[in-house]
Write a structure and sequence with these properties.
The complex is a heterodimer of chains A (about 70) and B (about 575). By secondary structure, chain A is mainly α. Helix content of chain A is about 60%, strand content about 0%. In chain B, about 60% of the residues are buried. The chains are: A mainly alpha (about 70), B mainly alpha (about 575).
């Protein structure tokens, strides 16, 4: 992205965001698996699969855009 | 704005768990960390005000659409979708896509080749100080007032949704924004806009996914809406617009096509410096042309997370929402539909993600306003009129200082808005006064070399005065609404569209008339500024998929298909 300044690409920070949020949400989803919250469609356990998606995207972005020498 | 204030009566909707708070706090820590990391790269004026002109088409394009995608807009348009149905999608489709493609293919070459730093900067080169000064002063005032009004509106939303103290919300978020923008300049603002873009999508996308699952798809949703609201059409975009009285917006299709698409949206997307600044930061002319076109595809998709939740609210919410001015205890306003849908489907973790997306949206909007204000103040007011020929470092320091000062002025405006609710409506109206005539002035200047300096200034002034006059006339009596908006039944949104149309028309007519009786500038002074005197590099050697015109055409084709599907 920034050849002149050699800045870490913004996509790496996007990956960090996805990874951290993915872990938090996935973990929260697992913790409440047997006692889901009082929301509509709680039986679908959306935090688990949405958190997993965020983790996968986070790993991909962090890996692909990690700072290089 | 009345709807926003009405939300204060209803009590807060959401309780955040520990994991939700962790998500919110991590976001604040990340944006501050990014700001401090980028500070070392924002050394020169070009770095601080234009991110070094190094952004790729994708980064500039995402920042371009994200700068517009503020949380107030998300909440407000989801509320409009609940109130008016899919008609609200016009502001995302015909009211945005043609203008974004036009900016990329027609206007960006002139903005970019002229090496201007801002839209008033282009006016300075093309028309001289009078037009540039008028545009710069009005933009600076408008932007900083809008920042304050949005800041207050955000604080109200945070109080209603989360129960946060209004002062706490305003000070914590504005100081965070002030620190990271003052540190990293436009680099920081753009980085955080890209983050915000992804946050908003991943925070809000679950609502339409789970909502359509609950209703059994689009047809199931439409059936439920018809059951809940018999006799009303919420899911057709063009059919109900054959007359002013056949739709709840009070809009005729001519207002949408000629007022919204041809003038209002063109004015905003091609001359509002807050969004154009993101494209000016592109690394080369091809990236500058592609950025708005890339943005147009994402803008086209935004109704998925804004309009569709509003429609789903009509189908699944157990209560009917009401206008903000009519909220009674226990009721909710239209503008609360998005938080209500968030709470309906999202438990701990996902709720934090959604709330952080809203907070991020507000903060990115504030960052956009202060970074644009800092650029226009420093380069278009301070440097030409107050201190010329200072070293570059002096202007960078001025940029950092006026970011902080501008922020405090915004906070002051927010407190004023707290005291005087009608101030918010007038500040938003201010925006509409200047944008449409500015489009006429900039476009004529780019396409016709004959337009003179005097014509540029007088046309802009005449268009602006027309806009202000029409606004107050239509506010004073339905008699004027019938004349200028073509029907006494035309409501606020429709009136604004016709106001844009007439003010832009006045600007163009006056510009042409004054041009014909004044002396044109010599061609040598206009090279790189006007169509007939500018060499824009052709792209014969580029493959079809690398040509901006291919992708611009694809965006317009997708727009037409959407209009046919949802007619």
């Amino acid at each position: 992205m920034s050849e002149k300044h050699n800045i870490i690409p913004v996509w790496f920070f996007v990956g960090v965001l996805f990874l951290v949020y993915g872990v938090l949400i996935f973990g929260s989803g697992l913790a409440e698996w047997s006692h889901p919250p009082n929301t509509v469609l709680a039986d679908l356990h959306a935090p688990v699969w949405w958190g997993a998606l965020l983790i996968v995207l986070g790993v991909v972005y962090c890996g692909a855009f990690r700072p290089r020498q | 704005m009345t709807a926003i204030l009405g939300m204060l009566e209803t009590g807060h909707l959401v309780r955040l768990s520990a994991v939700d708070l962790a998500i919110v706090i991590f976001y604040f820590a990340l944006v501050l960390g990014i700001g401090f990391y980028l500070k070392r790269f924002a050394k020169t004026g070009e770095d601080f005000f234009l991110a070094g002109r190094e952004m790729t088409a994708w980064v500039a394009g995402l920042a371009f659409v994200s700068a517009n995608l503020g949380s107030l807009e998300l909440l407000g348009w989801a509320g409009n979708a609940y109130q008016y149905g899919i008609l609200a999608a016009h502001w995302y489709w015909i009211g945005a896509i043609p203008a974004m493609v036009f900016l990329g293919l027609v206007m960006m070459p002139f903005y970019y080749i002229s090496k201007t730093h801002s839209v008033p900067g282009y006016l300075q080169l093309r028309y001289g100080s009078a037009a540039s000064g008028l545009s710069a002063v009005t933009f600076a005032i408008m932007t900083i007032l809008m920042s304050g009004v949005n800041m207050y509106a955000m604080a109200v939303v945070m109080k209603v949704v989360l129960g946060w103290d209004i002062n706490f919300s305003m000070w914590v978020s504005s100081l965070t924004v002030g620190v990271y923008v003052a540190a990293g300049g436009l680099f920081s603002a753009i980085f955080n806009e890209v983050l915000q873009f992804f946050l908003i999508w991943f925070g809000a996308l679950l609502i339409p996914i789970l909502g359509l699952y609950e209703t059994g798809g689009w047809k199931g949703m439409v059936a439920r809406i018809q059951q809940n609201f018999p006799g009303q059409d919420f899911t057709h975009m063009w059919g109900p617009m054959h007359s002013f009285s056949s739709n709840p917006m009070g809009i005729h299709w001519t207002g949408i096509v000629f007022g919204l698409a041809a003038v209002q949206s063109m004015g905003y997307w091609t001359t509002d410096f807050l969004v154009v600044q993101r494209v000016l930061s592109a690394k080369d002319i091809r990236s500058a042309k592609m950025a708005p076109i890339i943005g147009s595809f994402f803008k086209m998709a935004v109704p998925l997370i804004v309009i569709l939740p509003g429609l789903l609210g009509l189908a699944v919410l157990p209560m009917h929402l009401v206008p903000g001015s009519q909220v009674q205890p226990g009721q909710h306003s239209y503008d609360e539909v998005l938080p209500l849908m968030l709470v309906r489907y999202c438990g701990p973790g996902l709720l934090g993600l959604g709330v952080t997306a809203l907070v991020a949206g507000f903060m990115a909007g504030m960052a956009g306003n202060v970074s644009a204000f800092a650029t226009v103040w420093t380069y278009d007011i301070y440097r030409p009129f107050i201190k010329k020929n200072a070293p570059d470092q002096h202007y960078v320091a001025m940029g950092r200082w006026c970011t902080i000062i501008g922020l405090f002025v915004s906070i002051g405006t927010a407190y004023l808005a707290m005291k005087f609710a009608s101030l918010m409506d007038y500040v938003q109206a201010l925006f509409g006064f200047f944008i449409a005539p500015l489009f006429g002035t900039v476009l004529l200047g780019m396409l016709w070399k004959r337009v003179t300096k005097a014509a540029g200034f007088l046309g802009l002034l005449a268009g602006t005065l027309t806009s202000i006059t029409l606004f107050f006339l239509m506010k004073s009596s339905p008699h004027w609404v019938a004349i200028f908006a073509l029907s006494p039944e035309a409501k606020g949104l429709a009136q604004a569209m016709y106001q844009s149309l007439w003010s832009c028309t006045t600007c163009v007519v006056i510009t042409i008339l004054v041009t014909l009786v004044t002396k044109p500038r010599p061609d040598e002074e206009l090279r790189g500024l006007v169509y007939s005197l500018t060499d824009v590099a052709k792209e014969e050697h580029a493959s079809l998929f690398h040509k901006p015109v291919f992708w611009g055409t694809a965006a317009l084709a997708a727009l037409v298909i959407l209009q046919i599907i949802f007619r």
